[in-house]
Design brief:
Keywords: DNA-binding. By secondary structure, the chain is mainly alpha-helical. It has helices spanning about 5-30, 40-45, 50-55, 60-80, 85-95, 95-105, 105-120, 125-145, 155-175, 185-200. It has ten helices and no strands. It starts with a helix and ends with a helix. The model has no long low-confidence stretch (mean pLDDT about 85).
């Protein structure tokens, strides 16, 4: 048998198993929440052994990161392509996928954000951090034409500060929510406006 064909088939099988695992985890996390879902349940839903699941995601947190990375990656790419005239609008548009996740799946958004910020190293966390770096770089691009020249911070530092402040607000919201009241978009818009005003950018 041709080695190239064999490898290609093996790669296709691996990709199919990974897709099945990610799809099963996404459905169960959305239905039950991350905390209430076990890796054994995900493996059963994906029709693979639990040991096979751990070959694709070494831990349950890595599995969550895999699922949300798959969700965020194309949305972030789309939001980067979109343009708005107001830097506040542009930043909120860029962070739209994270905001949407917090609104639609708060039980998954909180552990995801915690794992990105404080989790153990792993390939899926590396991918999450790469997505975050792209967001931060884009925030820097958005802010560059608007920043006050007297700001005693580099553009990267400013972008990371703005991103961290907004992610902290999202995390506080999804962890400490009570009745789910309030307009999250309005609150975040106000936070961004205040931050940028302090930087001479809004």
């Amino acid at each position: 048998m041709n080695t190239g064909v064999l490898l290609s088939r093996r790669d296709r099988n691996k990709a199919a198993k990974r897709e099945a695992i990610a799809r099963a985890a996404a459905r169960l996390f959305a239905e039950r929440g991350y905390a209430a879902t076990t890796t054994l349940q995900v493996a059963a839903e994906a029709d693979v052994a639990e040991g096979t699941l751990f070959r694709y995601a070494g831990t349950k947190p890595e599995l969550l990161l895999m699922v949300i990375n798959e969700h965020l990656r194309p949305l972030v790419d789309l939001s980067v392509d979109a343009q708005a005239n107001d830097p506040v609008d542009e930043i909120l548009l860029l962070l739209g996928p994270l905001i949407s996740l917090a609104e639609s799946q708060p039980d998954n958004a909180a552990p995801f954000l915690r794992e990105v910020l404080f989790g153990e190293d792993g390939p899926e966390r590396d991918e999450s951090l790469a997505i975050v770096d792209r967001m931060i770089a884009r925030i820097g691009t958005i802010l560059a034409p608007h920043l006050d020249g007297d700001v005693d911070m580099t553009l990267d530092e400013v972008a990371r500060w703005v991103f961290s402040a907004l992610v902290s607000e999202l995390l506080r919201d999804v962890v400490g929510r009570t009745d789910g009241g309030g307009d999250r978009q309005l609150v975040l818009r106000t936070r961004v406006r205040v931050l940028l005003r302090g930087l001479g950018a809004a």
